[in-house]
Amino acid sequence: MGARLRVFLNQEEDRTLFELRAATTVPQKVKDRAQIIRLNSQGCYVEEIAAHFNCREQTVREVIHRWVKMGLTGLWSTRGRGVKPKWKESDIVHLEECLRNEPRRYNSRQLAQKLEQERGVKLSPDRLRRILKKKRLFGNEPDQAIKTSKTHYNAQ
């Protein structure tokens, strides 16, 4: 069996981890990780901490190892796995400039082709439409609404 995993904190580190509990801008996972480190420094075993937080012992060990290796920054999560976006904000800004400056109108398929030809970014027309909708770059614009009624009412 290996040696017991234990962290020793100075007063400043302990106070910082204690204050993280009350912070409103800190995610709950970070607060839990800070509490795990504090409990470990107070002498609690990994098994006890895992039972208290209803998580695996390996999770507690990983939190402690990240604290030892990275310090306070080890409490925050790194970027997740998964597919990264194929497009950048500058690509959407480029399309926005094209839509404003060019006199013609584009549909989503034409915009996707234009983006692939000019910027080398391959997006499906549906995906591009959803991105542009989120950015509110096209669709019914409030400034294009008819300000006056089309029907005239003569009150006599």
Task: Report a brief summary of the structure.
This protein has helices spanning 11-22, 28-41, 46-53, 57-70, 89-101, 108-119, 125-135. It has 156 residues and is an all-alpha fold.
What does this structure look like?
It contains seven helices and no strands. It is an all-alpha fold. It folds into two domains: 11-75; 89-138. Helix 1 packs antiparallel against helix 2 (28-41), helix 3 (46-53) packs across helix 4 (57-70) and helix 6 packs across helix 7. The longest helix is centred in the N-terminal third of the chain and has 14 residues, at 28-41. The chain is elongated and about 70 Å long. It starts with 10 loop residues before the first helix and ends in a 21-residue tail after the last helix. The relative contact order is 0.08.
Architecture blueprint of SSEs:
Elements: H1 11-22, H2 28-41, H3 46-53, H4 57-70, H5 89-101, H6 108-119, H7 125-135
User: Which stretches of 5+ consecutive residues score pLDDT under 50?
Assistant: 139-149
Structural class by secondary-structure content: mainly alpha
Number of H/I helices:
7
Largest sheet: none
Q: Report the principal-axis shape.
A: elongated
CA-based gyration radius: 28 Å
Total strands: the figure is: 0
Our estimate of the beta-strand percent is: under 5%
Please tell me the overall pLDDT. 83
**Secondary structure: helix percent:** 40-55%
Tell me the domain tally: 2
SSE run: HHHHHHH
Distance between the termini: 99 Å
